[in-house]
Amino acid sequence: MKLRHSLRITAFVLAAVCSSALFAENTRQILDGINKLRDIPYAKRGAQIKQLAAKIHDLPASKEQVELAYNLMSRATEGEPGRDALQAATDAFSTALTATPIPGKKDKVASPYMELASVVRYEGIHTDFKGPELAQAMSELEKQDEAISKADFTLSDLKGKKVKLSDLRGKIVMVNFWATWCPPCRHEMPDLDAIAAHFAPQGLVILAITDEQLTKVGPLLSQVQANYHPTILLDSMKTVHKQFYIRGIPKTFIFNREGKLVGQTIDERSQHQFLMMLQKAGLDISR
């Protein structure tokens, strides 16, 4: 009897070890797939995102599942891989959060719920998540947007010239937060440059704000293009970053000619996506 009992215990432990090893291997493969997404063209990236979302959905409920789903959704919002891909990533994230709630600190909503709310609010994506955390996060975003819509700032460009947001009333203004170390930010730069150059006659101004020092920004611009058309502004104290509640970059806000906030992104955008947003702000993109 003792021998059989010992064998049963050994078999149980062995099964648990095998299950744990399989889980670890699955998570490693999923994470590896997420990390390689930026190497895949947008036209093919959507299919890979949906495959990874399905694999994450099938994982056992755990914090690791939430983290993987969080990382995948962060990649799915980059550029234009397709709304069905973003929906699949959001569904996997919603399922993971439902199974494994993430506590916030004190009275603050945990960041995963803020990201989920951002996708719902700014991308128009549906979620089946029913927890009260989503309503709290949506309320917080609404308050932030109200504050941002009233924001004003003055920053210096690369030559020390002061630029004030409110002085640009009458123009359509894009406020883009970026940094040299950010791959999606750098991927946006050629499109922002082309848009700024082409639509300047219509009164479009792009303010590209970084919290880095001039010594970091200057060398990159000399590599990309010396005559970069967006106006680079330095926010080394992160004052304006805080004013706009920047949690991740790239992040872009669009103000119409009356100074009203009419749109914002939560990540990298393609040229087509930028143009669609600018059209809603009153820009004639056919010209």
Biggest β-sheet: strands ordered side by side in the sheet: 2-1-5-4-3-6-7
- The end-to-end span amounts to 86 Å
Structural class: alpha/beta
Sheet-strand content, in percent, reads 5-15%
Which structural traits does this protein have?
about 55% helix, disordered N terminus, seven-stranded mixed beta sheet, 10 helices, alpha/beta, about 290 residues, Glutaredoxin, 2 domains
How would you characterize this protein structure?
With 287 residues, the chain is an alpha/beta fold. The protein folds into 2 domains: 2-146, no CATH class; 154-280, Glutaredoxin, CATH 3.40.30. Helices cover 54% and strands 11% of the residues. It contains 10 helices and 7 strands. It has helices at 2-35, 42-57, 63-76, 83-99, 111-123, 132-149, 183-199, 214-224, 239-243, 271-280; strands at residues 154-157, 162-164, 172-177, 204-210, 231-234, 251-255, 261-264. The protein has a 7-stranded mixed sheet with strand order 2-1-5-4-3-6-7, with helices on both faces. α7 links the parallel β3 and β4. The protein is globular, with a radius of gyration of 22 Å. The termini are far apart.
What's a concise summary of this model?
This protein has 287 residues and is of the alpha/beta class. It is built from ten helices and seven strands.
